[in-house]
Amino acid sequence: MDIVFTPQKPREKMMKFGIESLTDVELLALFLRTGTQGKSVLTVAREMLKQFGSLYTLLSADLDDFKEVHGIGLAKYAQLRGIGELARRYYNARLLEESSLLSPEMTREFLQSQLAGEEREIFMVILLDNQNRILKHCRLFSGTINQVEVHPREILREALKVNAAAVILAHNHPSGNAEPSKADRQITERVIKCCQFMDIRVLDHLVIGRGEYVSFAERGWI
Length: 222
Description:
Blueprint: H1 10-17, H2 24-32, H3 41-52, H4 55-59, H5 74-97, H6 104-115, E1 122-128, E2 134-142, H7 152-161, E3 166-172, H8 182-196, E4 201-208, E5 213-215, H9 216-219
Parallel strand pairs: 3-4
Antiparallel strand pairs: 1-2, 1-3, 4-5
Helix pairs in contact: 2-3, 5-6, 7-8
């Protein structure tokens, strides 16, 4: 007698084994809830991920990108964009509310959630106390699709307002390529020199691309 294994539905699998057990396809199916005529929700989720290439690309896509996806109307598009925005706000709240020290992993997750989908270059600063706990984070400068003008004195002014002991710099590359430019390295050196006068440490500068990042600290540039 042959034994036939029936795949579990995402919700049933989650309740039995935990949310971490779900694949990307199953997680997406959990939010989509229903399939289309002639296709199960798992089939729809699998085809969508194949078409867009990744969850990140899928959740950051515009409405026009979904026109060729059969069965995905405005309602499901709104659901998908809502998931992405909820994740962004989750990391925002987590960064401010958790009492533990800021870790490199948490920093990257937060900055990717805030900057990866931006269409213009945004320069952010995270201000920390002497135990590397978050005091404040802010978007100080915004620019065009390929550049942003940064003023080190403004960064120092924000740090002094909250008596910060250290800062983490970050900006995005809307092109998707996170490799720092010569200008990125030059402005980092200027900010470091400016902060040194007030004994404020620059811990890192992260450049955020699409699904990738570059850390100046990891490169040994800071």
